[in-house]
User: Fold this.
Amino acid sequence: MQDADDQAGIPGETPKQRINRELIELLNEIRIALPGVQVLFAFLLVVPFGPGWRHTTGFQRHAYVFSIATAALATVIMIAPSSYHRLLWRQPHKEHMLMTSNVLLIAGMAFLAMAISGSLFFVVSFALGTWEAAVTTAGILGVILVLWYAMPLARRNEVWRHRD
Assistant:
């Protein structure tokens, strides 16, 4: 849920203008997140071709496959709103497109969190060992969960409590 001020929109803004503004905001957020997931995906694509690959364990290879699969899914899901927008261009479906794209971006961020965690685990396990990788990954995943999910959801719940 958004703040009460944001729910009202900009003074004088029509519902159509609000949907257009919110869609632009969402697409801008995708433009910020997408390069990061694409760089991660590109890095993961070349890893098996490096000289160190032959020294990886079966467990590390599973972590790698998990990482590249979740990075691929994050990439696909985060690009989907742009495709959706292009294919529905000048169609009367903008509000539906906005709602769907919002869900897609949230899902893409979840897969990105998994890809970051899996990649970190893979690299740290290769460099230091499995125990160190587990501890490091748990710490970073904790930060992701707090910043990306717990803080915004706590604020959302706070706003809901104060509305009643």
